[in-house]
Amino acid sequence: MKHLPIFNKEYRKLLKDFGVYLERMGYNKNTQSMLPSCLQEFFYRMEQQGINTLDQLTPGLIRKHYEYLTERPNRTRPGGLSDSMINHHMYALKTFINYQQESGNMHTNPFSVLNFPKVKCPPRQVLTIEEIKALYNACENMKDRAMLGLFYGCGLRRSEAMKLNIIDINFKSQLLYVRSGKGRKRRVVPLTDQVKTDLQNYYLYERGLQVREITKDNQNAFILNRHGNRMVEYWKRLKYLVKQAELPEQISLHHLRHSIATHLLESGLSIEQVRDFLGHRYLESTQIYTRISKQYLASQTV
After folding, report:
1. Within 13 Å and on the Cβ side, how many CA atoms surround 212?
2. Which of the following is catalytic: 157, 258, 263, 275?
3. Catalytic residue among 88, 145, 257, 258
4. Which CATH superfamily is domain 129-300 in?
5. Strands (DSSP E) found in the chain
6. Does this model's pTM top 0.90?
7. CATH 1.10.150 is held by the domain 9-113
């Protein structure tokens, strides 16, 4: 697609500006390359039809481009474009038009009246606030509440909770430090008053009492199992709490992370703030939760 010539100076500038926009918004390198490439093919076809300005863009032209993509041969292998690749093309065009509208260069959005088949992905389950409360009500000790505080209240990944040390939590400042997240990314997670209280209660009043003997190699670990080792069996305990709360048995630790992300978006946090909270490197990793939050909100209003 990058080999297709674009002679229109306005289109060339728009392609360049779009690439800068994607970089500035934090999209990953592959996306920064792929989306302008998809847009370039669209501009190429616009030129071929004598359409040289965005003012001439209509829903009909976008639909015709979609129909063209469904019939276009794949240039790298036999057959046509995959549903996923067609989806990339339409996502590129939609993202570009949204960007132009936000910049004030387009006053109407021709995409707003169109619907195209989407690649189906397995749905991510989100717990309701009531289900989260049920899990907390099922807790039998301070460690249970501390565990929920890490995975729901702080949105930690399992590996991040396993690596968590005492020194990584500053109770006075109400901050939790993830020293080495996914991709070795560091971040700081703010603690709500309740999460701080739950973590502090476990540390002060239960951590040393629930274990037989704290092993020398794990003295720095924040949460310990009953043998005095660094806690790694979080999923087993969650399964127990899920059963006690009479919730769907497929709920996992990562469902708690999905849930807090969705609930934060519903509470009004921006997608950039949620990205930083979760420790995502790229914005599109967080964008899935904007769709989940809409589905969640709809389910709560039925």
Report:
1. 4
2. 157
3. 257
4. Intergrase catalytic core (1.10.443.10)
5. 169-170, 175-178, 187-190
6. no
7. yes
